[in-house]
Amino acid sequence: MIVQPPLLALIPVNYIFILAGMTGLASPYVKDLVRRGFSTVDLKRLFFGMVVSGGSVYSGGKKYCIRFYGKDLVLHTIFADLAYVLYNARPGTTGVRGSYVTQLYSREAVRELREASPEFETRRGGEPSLSFILEGGIDVKVEASRVLMSTGGWISCSFVNTTCGVRAYPRLGIGSVLPSNTLLDCSKLMSEVGLRFSVYQDKRYDGRGYLATSDLMTLKRFGNQGGFLEGTAVKRGEFAGMEKNSLLAAAVRAASRKFSSKEEAIEKIRELATDEELKIYLNRLMLG
């Protein structure tokens, strides 16, 4: 496991960054974690989660690189700020065919990730363990679940004809072909923060699968815990481009209603989501 001087590892990083006025931090999310007194080890657990669900680790010769992938630029800003706080390094972000890649060159970061999970070779079929995250306190686990859901999770909505009309069924999930050990660790993490997911195996790939749920209490609880990290968007389907949290809130509200058609249900969810996005926008203005 990651070895650090005990006192230094547990001291909240806000003592340093508040004195410096948090100069250099661009992400409101990371600034909030610092203000809340998350320790260096706490932040490393979240950084670790981002790499597990959305990155890769490479080392060869004298090159040590951690890459983070994805279409949500806000997540790359978070990744870069965490790298800066933890390793005093500035990763570079590059646009690649409608997506982004952020690269952190740090021997120390690669070493620590490998110590936390020796099987950290996701591109070579390895199965990273989340034990380092699972050792954290409840606040860290809640934020880790949000990080994992934001980088590798999804929210969708299906529509079913019933005798009473068309009903909307929201579904929350993470992954698609997660390795079995990583999948079980994710399931344990979600369970420990009160989120009930079922494990599904992907029939195309032996020993791989994903987590998903349509349990409305779980969807509501996830939203109350903060939901997806702000600014992450739906990537495909009828609601592509919509903020994930807006769709989450709208779909939960629509689940209790009946509609005359699928088209009416979709239009209502879009209307409710627009209201949610307006609330988010006004809240951003109030918070400055």
Give the averaged pLDDT, no decimals: 88
Architecture (CATH level 2) name of the largest domain:
Roll
Rough outline: globular
Secondary structure tally: strands: 8
| Strand composition percent | 15-25%
Low-pLDDT ranges = none
List the total number of helices.
12
What is the number of independent domains? 2
Radius of gyration from CA coordinates: 20 Å
Output the CATH topology of the largest domain.
Answer: Endonuclease I-creI
**CATH class designation of the largest domain:** Alpha Beta
Can you give the helix content as a percent range? 40-55%
Kindly name the structural category. Answer: alpha+beta
Strand count, sense and barrel status of the largest sheet are: 4 strands, antiparallel
Measure the end-to-end span.
39 Å
The side-by-side strand order for the widest beta sheet comes to: 1-2-4-3
Order of helices and strands: HHHHEEHEEHHHEEHEEHHH
Transmembrane segments: 6-26
Keywords: Membrane, Transmembrane, Transmembrane helix
Quick structural summary:
By secondary structure, the chain is an alpha+beta fold.
Can you put this structure into words, describing what you see?
The chain is α+β, with helices and mostly antiparallel strands. It folds into 2 domains: 6-136, Homing endonucleases (Endonuclease I-creI); 150-287, Endonuclease I-creI (Roll). 48% of the residues lie in helices and 21% in strands. The chain contains 12 helices and 8 strands. The strands form 2 sheets. It has a 4-stranded antiparallel sheet. A 4-stranded antiparallel sheet has the order 5-6-8-7. A hairpin with a 2-residue loop joins β5 and β6 (165-179). α8 (138-152) crosses α9 (180-192). The termini are far apart. 37% of the residues are buried. The mean pLDDT is 88.
